[in-house]
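# nightly structure sweep
# worker-07 picked up a monomer target from the shared queue
# config: single-sequence mode, recycle default, output format = structure tokens
# input follows
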Amino acid sequence: MQYKLIGTTMPAVEVLFDQAGEAMFTQSGGMAWMSDGVSMDTNTHGGVLKGIGRMFAGESMFMAHYTAERPGATIAFASTVAGEILPVNVGQTGGLICQKGAFLCAEPAVNLNIAFTKKISSGFFGGEGFILQDISGQGMVFLEIDGDKVIKELAPGEVIKVDTGNVVAFERSVAYDVEMVKGLKNIFLGGEGLFLTKLTGPGKVILQTQNINEFAGRIARMIPSK
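# output follows
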């Protein structure tokens, strides 16, 4: 399998299958275009329970699998918002914990499961929900980045505090927690909300410059109510 990233503002990843039998999977509706010689099959990708778990993690219950019937077939998967697509070799990272909606597509040997946050406070107030995505296995996975990507390599004990919604993914060695913004004036007048995501190294953290939920909220406030 080969791939290339296309576009800048609204990018896509186009995959070239070198051999018959090579495949990719994505959530329902993730495919943008494909050539002749690609077959499609829709299933729960690991069973009904895993499918239900993915629903809680922000993905679709059913996954669409696309398999090359001959060498040279191509398929493309496009991002849903303006930003970037980040290719990651999962086998080299040892796995990632991702926010809801970060997954775009992957090779079949990549596992997409749910991951519960270790602390209830993180789940209720962290902005990413009580359930995150656990990506493991072997092969390539492609993640959606809202805006531009920023990659930080945290040293042991190093802390970074991130606004809600700006975390894309982090390695399993990184500790995830939530802390309340200090000071009443900061809480009510600062405009950053009540909580910040606290990530503690060691490990790699992938951030995004755009918070799509915040952006959508600003657009919604401009829409006339009547």
